[in-house]
Each structure stands twice: as structure tokens, then as C-alpha cells.
Amino acid sequence: MRTLLRTLAALALTVPVVAAVSPPAAQAIGPNLLPVTVTNNTGRGEAVHLYVIGIQLSSGRLGYVNQAGTFNPWTGGALPPAPAPDVSIPGAGNGGATTIQFPRGFSGRVYFSLGEKLKFFLTPDGLVQPAPWAGGDANRDILFDWSEFTYNDSGLWLNSSQVDMFAVPHAVSVTGASGATRRTGDPVANGRDNVINAIRGTSGLANTVYARSDGTVLRVLAPGKAASAGLMSSTYLDPYIASAWNAYTGKTLTVVPFGDQPNTRYFGRTSGNVMRFTNAAGAEVASFNRPSSASVWGCDGDLPAPNDQVVGPISRTLCAALNRGTLGTIDTQPSTNAADFYRNNPTNVYAKVIHQNMQDGKAYAFAFDDVGAFESLVHDGDPRSAGLHLTPFTGGGGSNPAPTGVPVISSLNNKCIDVPNGTFADSTLLQMWTCNNSNAQKWTFTGGTVQAGGKCMDAQAAGTGNGTPIQLYTCNGTAAQQFVLNAAGDLVNPQANRCVDIAAVNSNDGARLHLWDCVGAANQKWRKG
């Protein structure tokens, strides 16, 4: 996962780690101080308190950032841990917004609590962060949550997280230099209640929902935290794990850990309780003992994931497959068809219902939920602003209908034509994005049009020349919305007699589409998924 700070134990030190797979340091772009607007649409009346804590990347010092974006190192730690100074930033009331600043070269968390300030503590080695799954934690009866981020010379990574718990519904967004905004993490209407009720109604999981004495549901604990606290069976997933593991005593598991390196493959077979992996040359490169439920929940223990190019990538792929329930039945991993996830019994109900109740299907419900790009993360290499959006606890949100149609996949990069943010608004420019089975990538070919979300692929302003942008627009029966996918794989607008083309042969996420003379190049070749 892209978690930036990890809690080692109940009331233990948190050791900062930059776990995001960020590009190498590059020439600085974006502002030295990135404005981040925290909006409060919770529908609740409590005061909101904000905290920006983490690590200064250049020095390795732990500290906090004030509202103006100034970094301050922690001082005054003691044993037993001493109360940390109050570094809270006042947040806006319901319907309002507060702007904070991320300084470049900082990685950490933004905490937000409702009604009561959080209690942090300091030891000589660092900060003790809230751990409400632990008995006696000072923050157990406070309603709070957090998002995680890294802002450096290569841009901003910002994600919501449900890896430890599901508490305050919130979304994250980033706006780049082009003015385009990407947002994720919004729940569907009544999504928070849906998650809580689904967990309460599942045998063996009801105690993982924690409510305060006044009846306020504060959080649903993730399975690993709940099991370690004795609130659910510590062997809950064991029957499925054993079945999936043993499936490879008689067949081979193929792991293709890098989407951009399809020829890098590892092959696993189980003998006894050990699954051994070989490379294409037949040399053994990794082995794993059959993991416990705890190892699967945490993606650690028997599934260690070092920061290397072989063992770690295989381990994270195994962990994602075991959490999603596809190991044992889908023999090439990672599986990226969300329709195949969580169909096993027992299954990770926590992850299943959280994903089901997100508008775009994305969440960070376990440590390696980013395998296959199912995580609630926004990234921009040249950001201009960002947002944290505290969303309604009840009502609000939107529908999450089952996707219809098919993905339209490029021969250049095996990525999909995508409606940014799943926002089906007129004039939304279409882009390329890693295929993720979301509504934003489901296209229906009907009557000579290509439609998503009830709207049509459209040549902007009925343009016919090279460089005419491809957008989404209300279907209107004009020639600008006629597109034909021919047998050669060309997606042609007959009026212009030109092809849908990935601009500048850009193979990255976010690449734009336009019309261009048909030349038969890979960036003009398409297929239905």
C-alpha cells in the first residue's frame, strides 16, 4: 500500500516509511506550498480539527506542519510517552472549507477529528499516533480518520485509506497545471450506513463495529485490527487460504507482477505448505509458507514484501489475490476483473462492501489494494492544488450501477478509454487510463455511436481537422458523434475520415485523445475488451 506511516503496536512508535512507489526525484515543478482545501459536507454539527503530521524527506525529521505550511520538528519526548503539544488546525463547520498547505518534500497524514481534539504522545524516538483498536487508547471514543500523502519534486500522491478502519467518509482530489481535476473516494448515497449495516449483518463480524456510549458509530475495524483485538476469529479466512494454497499442488500459478512488463513471469507450485516460485529459466526465486489469516489481512508475516523486484512483487500479488478471493480459481495473477472478486466463502467482507459502496469502486481496504489500480489514490506530476472532501454521513453520494458495455483498449499500452473521475458531464475530455472495470471505462456501441454513462463520444465543436479533441457530450444525432470501429482496429469518425488517436503517442495514464489522419500506428489501434 502507499501508507506513509505505520503503527507498530498498540501505543507504540510510528516509524515513517515512504511506501509509495514514487518516481525518482525530478526537477521541481508545482508550487513550494501546495494549497489543500478541506471541505466539510458531513452534515454534522461538531467542530472539526485538522492535523498534518509526518516526515521531512530531506532531513528525515519527524514533525508537523502548521496551516501556513511551515514544518516544525517534534521536541520533548519522554518515557512513558508525554503528551504532544496541541498542533491542531481549526477546520470549517458543515458547509464550509479550510485551506491548509503541504510543503514540498513532506510525506505523512492529514488527520481530521470531529467534536474532540485527538491526543498524540511523544517518546524520545518519535510520535505515538492514535490506535483506537487497542485497549486503553486515548482516542478510542473520538470520531476521526485520515488520508495519506507524499508531495515531492515528482508531484503529489494523495489517498484515502481504510486499511485500518472505516470511519469518516471522505474523498481526495488533485488539480494539475492543465486545470483538470481527478477525484476518488466518494461513497454512494448512504454508503457509510450501507457498510456498517452489511458488516453488522455478517456472522462473526458484528463486534468489529464500534459505537460510542451515545450511540454514534465511530468506526468499523479492518479484519486484521479486529482479530488482533479479539473481536473476530483469528482464523476467519483460514479455510479459504488452505483451499487456494493447495490448488497449486496439481497446477501452476503464473504471476505477472508488472503491467508494463508482460514477459516478466514467475511460476508457482505448492509442495506441502510451501509455494515455490521459479523464473522463466526454471531457477527458484522465492518461496512462501502457507499464510495465516493474520498474514493475509496485513500482507506481512508469511507474505513478506521487501522493496525488491522479485519477492516483493510476487508477495503483493499473492496478498491481493487472497484478499480478493481469486487465488485458487484464477491461475494468472493479478486478476483485474472486479466481477471475479470476493466470491469465495469465507471472504473479505470488509473490503467487499467498502468497494461496493464507492462511486468509482475504488478504495484502500487492505494493504496492497493498489494491485491492479483499485486503490483510492490521486496523483499528479505537476499539481496546482488538492482537496480533502469530508462527505455526508447519510444521504448524499450517488448511484453505483453495475457497469454495462465493454472497455475500449489501446494496442499502444493496453489501457482503456476513460471518462475522467467517472464524471459524465458535457465537454469532459476523454483520456487513457489503466483498465479498472469501472463505469468510466464501459462503452456501448449503438446506432453508430460510442456511449458511456448515457452520453456520446464526440468530436469537440464538430471539428474534423487533425488535433480535434475527443470529448463526452449529450447524444444529439450529429455526425460529430458517429464513430466506427472497423476490422483493422481503427476507430474512425466518418465525417472527418480521421481516426481516434492517442495524442503525442503518450502511453501514460491521463493521455488525451484527438482526431488524426489514419496512419495505422499502434496509438490508433483499438479493440473491445
Give a written overview of the molecule.
With 529 residues, the chain is mainly beta. It has three domains: 5-20 and 34-231 and 351-390, Thaumatin (Sandwich), CATH 2.60.110; 238-344, Metal Transport, Frataxin, Chain A (2-Layer Sandwich); 408-528, Trefoil (Trefoil (Acidic Fibroblast Growth Factor, subunit A)), CATH 2.80.10. The strands form ten sheets. Strands 4, 5, 6, 8, 10, 13, 14 and 25 form an eight-stranded antiparallel beta sheet that branches. It has a five-stranded mixed beta sheet with strand order 9-3-26-16-17, with no helix packed on it. α1 runs antiparallel to α6. 48% of the residues are buried.
Summarize the structure.
With 529 residues, the protein is mainly beta.
Blueprint of the fold:
Blueprint: E1 5-7, E2 14-16, E3 33-40, E4 48-56, E5 61-65, E6 71-73, E7 82-83, E8 89-90, E9 97-103, E10 106-114, E11 121-123, E12 126-128, E13 143-152, E14 155-160, E15 165-166, E16 170-176, E17 181-184, H1 191-200, E18 209-211, E19 217-221, H2 223-228, H3 238-246, E20 253-255, E21 266-271, E22 274-278, E23 284-289, H4 293-298, H5 311-324, E24 332-333, H6 349-356, E25 377-380, E26 383-390, E27 408-410, E28 416-418, E29 428-429, E30 431-433, E31 444-446, E32 449-452, E33 455-459, E34 470-473, E35 484-485, E36 491-493, E37 498-502, E38 513-516, E39 526-528
Helix pairs in contact: 1-6
